[in-house]
Fold this sequence. Notes:
Rossmann fold; single chain; 7 helices
Amino acid sequence: xxxESLVYARSFWRTPTPFRPHLAEAVGLWARGxxxxxxxxxxLKKTLGTIDATIDDxxxxxxxxxxxxxxLFDVPIEALARTFERVLxxxxxxxxxxxxRTARYGNVQRVWRDLxxxxxxxxxxxxxxxPALDWVVSLNLLSQIAHGAPEGAERQAVGRxxxxxxxxxxxxxxxxxxxxxxxxRAGTLLEEADLVHGHxxxxxxxxxxxxxxxxxEDGRDTRRIHTVFAYPEWHRTIDRRxxxx
Length: 245
């Protein structure tokens, strides 16, 4: 708790006032990642590997935007900063814990933005106004957008994000968890949920399991495992004229 309080305090004043209500949740996510470092490592390595490998396929390397950059657990910031002229980290919260990784790079910029704004019918339209934007990465964000949506609006929020990505006329990488399952110690399935709220996702280029909450995290005798889909080039897998509503 002391570490979380310190991170909260160090991050508070640098956070724009409208985003401060989200700070406690972001610190909690960071703390969970610290506690579950070993359990999360396979997922993080696969995510980082997908992004690293996709860099080679991006022909123009002026600006890259990472949507849902969070505490940078799954962002290869060093590789991005060395490769692109400008790196935009876009999220509601940017914790002070990431300062030591970003401070050495003058081309890394934090952008505070709510990517799940319920009142915005085109929450990703702002990307079209970013000059020299060559690549967009949506990073383990989609289920969080649904989680933050008003009750009953989760499917619409997911659809807006997917439609916004499909409408972009530049390379897009999408990595997202699409469901979760909760098991007891005997391996019995206790609960499952669709994190994309009924949207049919095309077959991914790669998929893996992410043990988000091992035994003892959410409950003493339960573990929660998410399924992750990775699309290095989202446009290759969809009909860009299709809508996800």
